[in-house]
Amino acid sequence: MHGLGGTRHTWRHLIGPLAATHTVIAPDLPGHGDSDVPGGDYSLGAHAAALRDLLVALGHTHATIVGHSLGGGIGLQFAYQFPERIDRLILISSGGLGPQLNPMLRAATLPAAQISVAGLAYLPRPLIRRLLPALSVLPGVVARQDARVVADALHGLADAQQRRTFIRTARTVIDWRGQTVSATGHLGLLEELPVLLAWGANDRTIPPRHEHAFARRLSAPHLAEIADAGHFPHETAPERLLPPMQAFLDSTRPFRYAVADQHGVLPQQSDRTPGSTTRPAEGEPN
């Protein structure tokens, strides 16, 4: 699962090697790339349900979920909503692990974002590729290693529908202060799920301390820090990311969900978003 504003092509360096031993499915998120826009719901829950529907349509009952950035947040949401369908979880520079976020992405949620993003998207791609590395010395700007990837993503937002999807999706998980959705309240549900955390040591989009803090709260995390990489290690350093991914897949057993195992690990009501009310069925005691 790719990140916000991305497409399935972000995985082009990993699909071939992984497909030698696994079935690999790399979708465009709803409203991204070649996928149709969603029916109005751009939330993590809706994206997780769309992923479930895709697996069902393709005849797969369960899968290892690999998610980058927003896709990591979707993977975490998928594990929470559909634990019976997940084997393992690989989070690459994942969202949903803390509030801090690059100011450029926070700005995408402001009222004038449509105009600002359109202005950047229509700049010539070579110009953006030259500007971003020069600006990388400033706080809050993308890492130098990510300049080409970000320039290509911005170029894709020249399409008005892609731009609307980008902003509407961003506003479901981000506001001007940072990330608004967190998976930390559901960590108990991941206790037995094999999880690989991978990130670039020079990530300027989501701070690496999110992965460090998340790892401390898991009982047996698998970790892969990619030196001299930014927010997109799967694009800028795939040769260093692929070995820990393959080792993780080879060395872990698929998770198998049992309802009894979840007793006592569900988050308290204050941790749930949104809240819920349960009404007993007719004839059942209150």
From TrEMBL:
One of its GO terms (molecular function) is hydrolase activity. It holds the Pfam family Abhydrolase_1. Residues 2-238 form the AB hydrolase-1 domain. Keywords: Hydrolase. The keyword Glycoprotein does not apply. Residues 262-286 are annotated as: Disordered. It comes from the Bacteria. Residues 267-279 have a biased composition (Polar residues). The keyword Manganese does not apply. InterPro entries: AB_hydrolase_1, AB_hydrolase_fold, AB_hydrolase_sf. This is Alpha/beta fold hydrolase. It comes from Plantactinospora solaniradicis.
